[in-house]
Structures are given as C-alpha cells and as structure tokens.
Amino acid sequence: MPVLVASDLDRTLIYSASALALTMPDARAPRLLCVEVHESRPLSFMTETAAGLLTELGDTAVFAPTTTRTRKQYLRINLPGPAPKYAICANGGHILVDGVSDQDWHARVTARLADECAPLAEVEEHLAASADPLWLRKQRNAEELFAYLVVERELLPEEWVKELAAWAENRGWTVSVQGRKLYAVPKPLTKSAAVREVARRTGAELTLAAGDSLLDADLLLAADRGWRPGHGELADTEFTAPGLTALPERGVLAGERILREFLKASG
Length: 267
Hints:
This is HAD family hydrolase. The chain is of the alpha/beta class. It has helices at residues 48-60, 71-75, 103-116, 120-130, 158-169, 191-202, 217-222, 233-236, 252-266, and strands spanning 3-7, 15-16, 32-38, 41-47, 62-65, 86-89, 94-97, 100-101, 136-142, 146-151, 173-178, 181-186, 206-210, 225-228, 244-246. Strand 11 and strand 12 form a beta hairpin. Helix 1 (48-60) packs parallel to helix 9. The radius of gyration is 18 Å and the shape is globular. The chain starts with a strand and ends with a helix.
C-alpha cells in the first residue's frame, strides 16, 4: 500500500533567506538550491542534499505538499523531483490534482465554513479596525477563505495578538504568527481534513507528516508519524502528539533531517 507524506513547506522543507539559520562557519555552510523566485528575486531555498532526498522520496511515496499558501503562491515553487499529483493549498481549502483545484472538495469546505464559523468579512473588518499602522504593512484575503497580515514583527505587541486570539476563538477562528505574517484562519479549515481525503483517494495506510506552526498541529495529530523542527511555534510551545518526534535541528538543516526521516519511515 502507498505511503502518504504530507508536509508543510515554509520553514519545514523550504526556507527564506532570513529563516535559513546558517550558524556554522561560512566555509562549512551547505550548498543551497533556490526553489522559488518571486518578482525576479530568489525567495526560498533548500540544501542541495535535501533536494536529492526529496527527489528520492517522490519515487518511494505519495508526496503531497501541504501548505497554508494560496494556489498562486504554491504554484510558483519549483520543487525538485517528480511533480506531486496531489497538493493541499490554502490550509486545506483546495486539493490540487495535477495542479488543478478539485471543485467538489472546495465546495464541501466552503459549505462547512458557512455553517460553523463567523464570516470572513467580519474578521477582516475587525483586523482593519484594530491593527496599528505603526506595525501593519499589508492586510490580505487568501482565496476568500482566511485573512492574514504582513507585520513588522519586532513592533507587533504580544498583548494585541492575545486579545485577537481570544476574540477569534469566540467566533470559531484561530490565530497563528509565522515570521512576518499573522494568520486568522477558520477552525474548520484544516490541513488534516484534506490529508485524510488524499489518503482515502490514494489508498494510503500510513501517513507521515511534518510542520513547524500551530496551523500544522492538527496535521501532526492526524498523522501516524510526524516530525517538527527545533524552531517555530510548535517548538516554542513544546507541542507534543502521539507518534511525533521533536527534532533538534533548526533552519534549513531541519528540512534536510525531516526528509531523511520521511525516507527511513517510508522505505
């Protein structure tokens, strides 16, 4: 039976320049492969070794990138190895099959959101009214499913984030901060639901997963085995789950280690 590998991308398998955490002497830094260019600039990287491991993984398991990115943001990533048949975007709002969104799945998700939580417009209005221009750089709507802010992280008040999280909780939403982005996401919009659907379609009996943020917690809880890097929200909160391994590596070398673990577990 096939093994399904459902992995978060940003700060799990791929890394921006600011997230690489290259703490070793320069001469010993790993060679990097650029896997994403945006507006003519290199944006995301993995080590060349990780690229080889991912190529190998694509031949031995069903690899399904599982990201909070929108479809447009995901499709500009150029991962090494076989093109994944399945990819999960918008935190589970879209399942791409050979690069095209499955409209039946998307309709099921949007119906559930309408039934179970406050509308996106209410959340967007609250964010616009309460965010301070001092630290707010952009407010965005992701595929009419959730909202996010681009912020100056060092100026973002922790107290404001806590108050927002409590406000969102009462409306069936959750808040997560990752790098310079603050996400407000409906609770029923989950990576795990989409991964279960992909597992059903592929007949996978073993699901492996990895992630670094609070938006990956449900994914790691649903997987048979999971890994989290030594950085990110989950590491900061010492998140644990059955079958979860907390890795010590931080930055781009954590991505390499996660791929080694995927290969070992799926072989």
